[in-house]
Automatic annotation (TrEMBL):
<dbReference type="InterPro" id="IPR024519">
    <property type="entry name" value="IAT_beta"/>
</dbReference>
<dbReference type="GO" id="GO:0007155">
    <property type="term" value="P:cell adhesion"/>
</dbReference>
<dbReference type="Pfam" id="PF11924">
    <property type="entry name" value="IAT_beta"/>
</dbReference>
<feature type="compositionally biased region" description="Basic and acidic residues">
    <location>
        <begin position="63"/>
        <end position="73"/>
    </location>
</feature>
<dbReference type="InterPro" id="IPR038177">
    <property type="entry name" value="IAT_beta_sf"/>
</dbReference>
<dbReference type="InterPro" id="IPR003344">
    <property type="entry name" value="Big_1_dom"/>
</dbReference>
<dbReference type="InterPro" id="IPR051715">
    <property type="entry name" value="Intimin-Invasin_domain"/>
</dbReference>
<dbReference type="InterPro" id="IPR008964">
    <property type="entry name" value="Invasin/intimin_cell_adhesion"/>
</dbReference>
<dbReference type="Pfam" id="PF02369">
    <property type="entry name" value="Big_1"/>
</dbReference>
<dbReference type="InterPro" id="IPR003535">
    <property type="entry name" value="Intimin/invasin_bac"/>
</dbReference>
<dbReference type="InterPro" id="IPR013783">
    <property type="entry name" value="Ig-like_fold"/>
</dbReference>
<dbReference type="GO" id="GO:0009279">
    <property type="term" value="C:cell outer membrane"/>
</dbReference>
<comment type="similarity">
    <text>Belongs to the intimin/invasin family.</text>
</comment>
<feature type="domain" description="Big-1">
    <location>
        <begin position="719"/>
        <end position="811"/>
    </location>
</feature>
<protein>
    <submittedName>
        <fullName>Putative Bacterial Ig-like domain</fullName>
    </submittedName>
</protein>
<feature type="region of interest" description="Disordered">
    <location>
        <begin position="53"/>
        <end position="73"/>
    </location>
</feature>
């Protein structure tokens, strides 16, 4: 289809070329205006084989263009004659050519017209959005060749010092389509421009991406730029080289353009760039170099803004190249006569003329290459195991080259936690897994790497596998992990013990038992702990912490737990390899039948003592206790359950009516004592007698004890200063907490609560949520408010009570009407404006209790905001300067007022916080109207 289109285009432009003689002849008959118009069109058609770099900017204004056209009519006429002569010569060449040469000339001419037309029209459309630059080309077969499009779009432009923009680009080179997306900003200060930009480059064809960061510094006749490039994509199959990978190369470039101010037609360009990698194609697509550098020196000559000639010399890493350049830059919308005027070259070199120029950078992604290894190496994706387990790993590979060696490696965490590789080389190795790490955010996932090396010294890309360590676990069973079911008597004999037989596994989906291995660091833990005090003992368990598992995952040596003391719900845990203990089960031991009926009360009988702690209701507590003897006449062991012990209150007989409560313990303490606590829900003072009966023995009474169940209390709140006080200052509040007998209670938490009166601002109140009583039972809190209001405070103690409310007041100081107290020495009356002569005004401040407010200094009253202003006038020209008070006890505050304009002032002063910025304080007073002052 494309070939037919190419033939049609060729035919149309061939016919058009036959009309050239008629066009040339007709041009001689036209006037100057038509001659200029034809010259412009002829010049546009003279783009055969030349790419047009256009710009949507008009670097000269319309008036300049009109004047330039008028001044250069003779130049346009001369140029028209040159163009006509050139076209006559072209037509003569066409007509003198052979038929085959004529066809080739016509085809080339047609392609040049298509390229120029497409570039021009696209440029004109894009230029309405910003600065555009297009390179477009078709080869002689009608196929698309190298080309590019760049567009700078202003996002914010204040036409002065700031410009923010985006730059979009597309290009096709070496059969690769690349897009560039960038954001940048330019700051114009004095005679310089400073710019920063960032770009994202994406090779759509090769799927390579990179980021770029750049900076610009421009002035008249000079442009400096620096760019860095960072890859964001990794190795991919190369499109240019068989058997290679490719990826973007990291690098940078530095460039500068310089023009002679005295002769702006001449310019020079210096560029230095370097990219990093072992095989980088910087110089051309076929030359791979290590960390190549490229320096470019260029010279240019611009006779007129439309046309530039140049030569570039490139040198880098043993390669050099010289390029001759010709650039046609047609400015759309600008008259041709302006673009052909040599005087306008200097305008293009100014900073103002280059404000919207495109960012100069290497928009083509420079690639790094790497030869593919001769073969691929593969490992198991994941292996899972438990601490200390060993697993065999075999590397699989395919290669026509003989294998020289396989190298293995892991990270330092694997080895630090006990992991081992049996060898660093070899096709097959054994891996010992590291210890399992317990707790949140612990890593139990480790990498192992392998690299194959062949006899031809090629190495494979590293292959990676993951090693996951799982914790030891008890396998869930239908029955218990111990036998028998119990409870068992506390005889201490093995026949009355629990045999534990759990199955050990690790955390996997299969939950399969761990067979025929030795596990280290195994411990049995009980609650209460094993030892003489609890009477618990573990039998058939050696001193070593290593155990052997059988083929079913059970311990070959099974422990037996016995007890000499009764216990209920003894929790038994198993801890393996320092992991968190795991519950195996709960067992109970009952009384020993041999001595369960022989518990008795010791000779000391029942004793009593007053406890320091209070009950939940705030009342005092008293403790009664008796020593319990076993059948052997010795105190029983700690934790012995005395199931047949009965406590009773014998006196007073109506203990229940008095709110007296008795709470007995069922287990003995470390000295074999059985205890009971009595307290009360009511106030009571009197004698109390309790009794205890154990088993078959008669009950034993306690001696008469005098008790006092008085209610604890909290004192009223006191303050260190009387109310009211100035806003922003503080009250130190204190309460005292005592028990029922008036003794101070330390370490009690006092909760503080506040309320504001009459719709006040509770957010302005600051007080701690709670405080703790000291050794004297006192708790303190500091109260303050940032606005004037009444605040009500209460304090409470859980289980004791709440104080009566205390109301305190915060108020602003009062003040007198300000009066004029002086002016600039030797100044006329009225004083002159200008910011030098001044008036002084003074007001007297009073505390909320009516006393003079002491120590006001330079208009500042601590937390009290003071504002000075003048009524009914614009305060902008006025300056208020607070003055230092030489007599702090006088309560006076003085301000000095100056003005930069002629104005009559009515000075006011206010105290308080305005509702919003710019408002007048709610409390204010002004100078007597008879004392108003004026700046002349």
């Amino acid at each position: 289809m494309l070939s037919y289109i190419g033939k049609v285009i060729f035919l149309l432009f061939f016919l058009y070329s036959l009309l050239i003689p008629y066009t040339i002849t007709n041009s001689f008959a036209e006037g100057d205006l038509r001659t200029e118009r034809y010259t412009k069109k002829a010049d546009e058609n003279d783009n055969i084989g030349v790419r047009v770099n256009g710009s949507g900017k008009k670097y000269l204004n319309s008036d300049t263009r009109k004047n330039s056209v008028k001044e250069n009519n003779h130049t346009s006429y001369a140029d028209t004659q040159n163009v006509i002569a050139k076209n006559l010569q072209m037509a003569g060449n066409f007509l003198s050519s052979s038929p085959s040469e004529l066809a080739e000339h016509a085809k080339s001419y047609a392609l040049g017209q298509v390229n120029g037309l497409v570039t021009s029209e696209a440029q004109k459309w894009l230029s309405q959005f910003g600065t555009a630059r297009i390179n477009f080309g078709l080869d002689k077969k009608g196929a698309r060749k190298n080309g590019s499009l760049d567009l700078l779009l202003p996002l914010y432009d204040n036409k002065a010092d700031w410009l923010f923009f985006s730059q979009l680009g597309y290009r096709n080179k070496d059969s690769r389509d690349t897009i560039n997306v960038g954001l940048g900003g330019r700051y114009f200060y004095q005679d310089w421009m400073y710019g920063l930009n960032t770009f994202y480059d994406n090779d759509l064809t090769g799927k390579n991406q990179r980021l770029g960061l750049g900076g610009e510094v421009w002035a008249d006749n000079i442009k400096l730029a620096a760019n860095t490039y960072f890859r964001v994509s990794n190795w991919k199959n190369s499109r240019d080289f068989v058997g290679y990978y490719e990826r973007p190369a990291n690098g940078y470039d530095i460039s500068g353009e310089f023009f002679l101010p005295a002769y702006p037609n001449l310019g020079a360009k210096l560029t230095y760039e370097q990219y990093f990698g072992d095989e980088v194609t910087l110089f051309d697509r076929d030359t791979k170099q290590k960390n190549p550098v490229l320096a470019t020196l260029g010279l240019s000559y611009t006779p007129v803004p439309l046309f530039t000639l140049g030569v570039d010399y490139k040198q880098g890493n043993g390669h050099n190249e010289t390029q001759f350049l010709a650039n046609l830059s047609y400015r759309l919308g600008v008259p041709l006569s302006v673009q052909l005027s040599p005087e306008n070259v200097a305008t293009a070199r100014t900073l103002a003329g280059s404000r919207y120029d495109l960012v100069e950078r290497n928009n083509h992604i420079v690639l790094e290459h790497q030869a593919k290894p001769a073969a691929q190496l593969s490992l198991p994706e994941v292996i899972t195991g438990y601490s200390g387990s060993q697993q065999e790993i075999t590397a699989k590979f395919s290669s026509e080259s003989p294998l020289k060696q396989i190298h293995w490696a892991t990270n330092k965490d694997f080895e630090q936690h006990g992991g081992k590789l049996s060898s660093k080389t070899g096709n097959t190795i054994n891996v010992t897994l590291p210890a399992y790490l317990s707790g949140d955010n612990q890593n139990n996932n480790y990498p192992i790497y392998a690299v194959a090396e062949w006899e031809n010294n090629q190495k494979s890309a590293p292959a990676e596998m993951r090693v996951i360590v799982r914790p030891f676990m008890l396998k869930k069973q239908e029955g218990a992990n111990f036998t028998p079911a119990g409870p068992l008597p506390a005889t201490g004999d093995q026949k009355d013990g629990y045999t534990f037989d759990p199955v050990i596994t690790f955390d996997t989906d299969a939950n399969a038992p761990i067979k025929n291995v030795t596990i280290n660091h195994v411990q049995w833990i009980t609650d209460p702990k094993i030892g003489p005090e609890s009477g618990l003992k573990l039998l058939d368990w050696g001193t070593s912490d290593s155990v052997v598992l059988d083929e079913n995952g059970r311990f070959k040596q099974k422990p037996v737990l016995v007890s000499t003391n009764p216990h209920k719900d003894v929790k038994v845990y198993l801890q393996i390899d320092s992991q968190p203990p795991e519950l195996v089960g709960e067992v109970s031991f009952g009384d020993n039948p041999a001595n369960s009926k022989d518990y008795s009360i010791g000779q000391s009988g029942i004793t009593s003592e007053k406890l320091k702690s209070l009950s939940g209701g705030g009342y005092q507590q008293y403790q009664f206790m008796a020593t319990i003897l076993g059948g052997d006449g010795k105190p029983v062991k700690e934790g012995t359950v005395i199931s047949d012990a009965h406590w009773k209150i014998d006196k007073p007989s109506d203990a229940g009516k008095n709110g007296i409560i008795l709470t007995p313990d069922t287990k003995t303490d470390s000295k074999g004592n059985l205890k009971a606590i009595i307290t009360s829900t009511k106030a009571f003072k009197g004698d109390v007698v309790v009794s205890l009966q154990v088993g078959k023995y008669k009950s034993v009474q306690s001696p008469t004890s005098t008790v006092n169940f008085g209610l604890a209390g909290i004192s009223p709140i006191t303050s260190d200063v009387p109310s009211p006080i100035v806003v922003g200052r503080t009250y130190n509040l204190t309460v005292t907490v005592t028990d029922g007998e008036g003794n101070p209670l330390p370490n009690k938490t006092v909760n503080w609560h506040t309320e504001v009166e009459n719709g006040g601002d509770k957010n302005a109140v600051k007080i701690p949520v709670s405080s703790t009583t000291n050794s004297s039972g006192k708790a303190t809190a500091i109260l303050t408010s940032s606005t004037d209001q009444d605040v009500t405070v209460t304090a409470s103690v859980d289980g004791i009570g709440t104080t009566q409310p205390l109301t305190v007041n915060f108020a602003w100081p009062t003040f007198s009407r300000p009066i004029p107290t002086g002016q600039s020495p030797q100044a006329p009356q009225p004083v002159m404006h200008g910011g030098t002569d001044f008036y002084t005004f003074t007001t007297t401040m009073y505390a909320p209790d009516g006393r003079l407010f002491e120590n006001p200094s330079e208009g500042s009253l601590g937390h009290v905001p003071i504002k000075w202003w003048s009524e009914l006038v614009n305060n902008t020209p006025l300056t208020f300067t607070p003055q230092k008070n030489t007599q702090p006890s006088s309560g006076e505050v003085t301000v000095q007022v100056t003005s930069t304009e002629k104005i009559k002032i009515h000075i006011c002063v206010g105290i308080g916080i305005p509702l919003k910025p710019g408002d007048i304080p709610p409390s204010r007073k002004c100078v007597d109207p008879n004392n108003m002052k004026e700046f002349n």
